[in-house]
Write a structure and sequence with these properties.
Layout: E1 8-12, H1 17-28, E2 32-37, H2 40-52, E3 56-61, H3 67-77, E4 82-85, H4 100-126, E5 131-136, H5 149-168, E6 174-181, H6 187-196, H7 201-210, H8 220-231, E7 242-245
Parallel strand pairs: 1-2, 1-4, 2-3, 4-5, 5-6, 6-7
Bound molecules: nicotinamide-adenine-dinucleotide.
Residues 12-13, 15-19, 36-39, 42, 63-65, 86-89, 109, 113, 136, 138, 181, 183-184, 186-189 line the site of nicotinamide-adenine-dinucleotide.
Length: 254
Amino acid sequence: MFSLQNKKAVVTGGGSGIGKAISVLFAKQGAEVHIIELTVESAQEAVSEISANGGKVISHACNVANHEAVVAVFEKIGAIDILVNNAGIAHVGKVDTTPEADFDRIMNVNVKGVYNCLYASIPQMRLSNGGVILNMASIAAWVGIPDRFAYSTAKGAVMAMTLSVARDYMSENIRCNSISPARVHTPFVDGFIAKNYPDNQAEMFDKLSKSQPIGRMGKPDEVAALALFLCSDESGFITGCDYPIDGGFIKLNN
Ligand SMILES: NC(=O)c1ccc[n+]([C@@H]2O[C@H](COP(=O)([O-])OP(=O)(O)OC[C@H]3O[C@@H](n4cnc5c(N)ncnc54)[C@H](O)[C@@H]3O)[C@@H](O)[C@H]2O)c1
């Protein structure tokens, strides 16, 4: 079960955190993994790790927010079976503390970046007579998280894009789902704690861990396992769905 032998998978932001865990697991399951990354060094580290374990992996330096660059990379990769739209950036702020430049930056990466990869991937999936797309949403699209205006807005758009694509390409044998993690311990979390709460980092880490009723943050490997199921043939009856992976965050926090 859950074999990805003979499949070609693209993972955006595959050099770090959740995307890296997905890239490592997909390669282990036999996929040829193409990592699209802004940060060349971290992509190279992921490539070295996967190659050392006998996996097939190629990295492509690319900003998902750049339409022409994304189209060119997908054309170079050619026919694909799987796309994981994982690259994303964090932001802290309410609507009146989110400057326009910040709002545009979050939309450019977290919304337009997903659009760009969807746009560029469909022709390559047609060459494979179908495929599966997995978008990284967030529990921020489900409930009101304090101080996450731009981020929540972007992740709401990701969920809506998931439904739209699932509907429009069902007849072409392309499935599309999303995952909504609560807090997962990755460099993304460490980075925004360090940036936004420099004076009380340990306290914030503890607070964020306990905001999941299960009492801890998720692990990238746990998200990767769900991603593997949703991108494998075993989930062939699933499309147009969002899967929270949240330690009880959405339903058990009252
Ligand atoms: N970590 C969490 O708690 C959490 C929770 C919910 C959702 N998510 C989502 O999961 C995804 C991955 O998060 P993570 O925690 O692994 O983050 P991370 O920062 O550890 O990794 C993200 C990767 O994306 C890459 N990236 C960023 N902008 C890019 C761009 N413009 N073009 C190409 N690559 C780019 C970064 O270089 C990095 O390697 C994001 O979409 C995030 O919003 C994370």
